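#dry-run=false #mode=assembly
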Amino acid sequence: MFTSLEGRSVVVTGAGKGIGKGIARVFARSGANVLLVSRTAEVLDGAARDLRAELADGAGGAPGATSRIETFVADVTSRAACQEMADAAVAAFGGIDVLCANAGIFPAASLAEMTEADIDEVFAVNVKGTMFAVQACLSALEASGRGRVVLTSSITGPITGYPGWAHYGASKAAQLGYLRTAAIELAPKGITINAVLPGNIATEGLADMGEDYRLGMEAAIPQHRLGAVEDIGYAALYFASEQAGYVTGQTLVVDGGQVLPESPGALEGV
Ligand code: NAP
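#status=ok
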């Protein structure tokens, strides 16, 4: 049996919507206290209202009834804002046991047209933002004695490619380069760090890419459906569990088998 996360303090960046909100939902239903972080107060407030209402309705089982949901506005590209975020979590919940560094952006730009500003923006949020969030939470995670960091990377970059996302793919692969050395440095502090690599997950961000994109992706996935945001939450919950204490510096692909087919022919007739 997995040990309950009831009462643990969890920070989730990029939690206003999409995968971050799904991660927050899964941790809250497990009884953890969750700090939702993003740049937009109204969206965060809406997410917190939704999650509190779900918990009050008893969705996902009883332990969540004890969970507290708080919000904090921060842009992870700012080191100072990340420190304020960590301080807010400590003030609200008495410490930090788990950081889910999930905030990320994926604007498209072709190689030929990609500007320096495009590259800087993607790396500022996806790479520097990850590093700043981890740094800011470090002392609290160490004090926890069972600190856990879970990064949201992607299959795009570390495993696959997609035209328009060369900078994005590079940033998601960079997170994994960071992860492997971070795991070594954090091990003596009792902190593990691992990454979830989502495939195509049904989110507001993905919906913006249109029906054709979604249908094309569903056809390329052996399970012929997009993932749910909670699928990523459950993977993060595993990495955060007491029982995953000996797992660090690792990646878990959650993609319905999307990276497996050698060619479109591999999916014909199955
Ligand atoms: P999303 O629906 O666009 O949500 C992104 C969240 O991050 C929002 O809450 C956004 O809120 C927040 N955010 C963006 N920039 C931020 C910043 N600088 N500081 C703080 N918060 C920020 O995206 P998603 O699809 O859930 O993606 C979440 C993560 O999963 C990203 O790291 C992405 O690379 C990864 N991922 C997604 C998919 C997928 O299929 N959706 C697949 C693979 C990997 P504000 O804009 O209000 O700040």
